[in-house]
Fold this protein.
Amino acid sequence: MQAIIITPEIEEELEPQIHLWSIADYHQMIEAGILDEDDRVELLEGKIVCMSPQRPFHAASVQRSANHLYELLRGKAYIRVQLPVILGNDSEPEPDLAVVRFDNNEYSFRHPEASDIYLLIEVADSTIAKDRKQKARIYAKNRVLEYWILDLQKRQVYVFRQPEENTYREELVLNSSDSIAMQAFPDVAIALDAMFPIAENLQS
């Protein structure tokens, strides 16, 4: 067998190979104990990505949003907080909030998939670029009907609707003082201010 010699010049031109994981691979790592609940990671487009630590502002917004949605959508949908959803065969993100259909087994045997999802919400403190680009692309590609980003720095909400291939055809930018209804529940007005942490100038 003839050896193939790669010269340094050719070697420099070669791009490093990245192994992409499937959801099946990811679940096998969890079952084998390679990953556990203490590992704050999620699977995004085949890559195992570390999740950002939560500052108080972020945690407060997640809690306030969950409480608000629980009250408004009681008996209409489940509100899941920082729990996995399965999108395609290479992404298992853990959005800050997911509004999903009822399931007879309360999702005891599977995670919600795109067809179960009414709305996904990400709370962005320092992750706005990732949430607007990578997360929006993943959610659109997998036909998540509606996706919101709560931008804590600007106290704005980005609303993405009408998924098409790798993007959303409709993007709205709302202020925290606005109200909006989800497409799935057009009769339920959601006051966005109730989903943001209390502003510092309002503290007693």
Remarks:
- Residues 143 and 163 are 6 Å apart (CA to CA).
- Strands lie at 41-44, 47-50, 78-81, 97-100, 117-124, 146-151, 156-164, 167-175, 179-181, 189-191.
- DSSP finds four helices and ten strands in the chain.
- The longest strand covers residues 156-164.
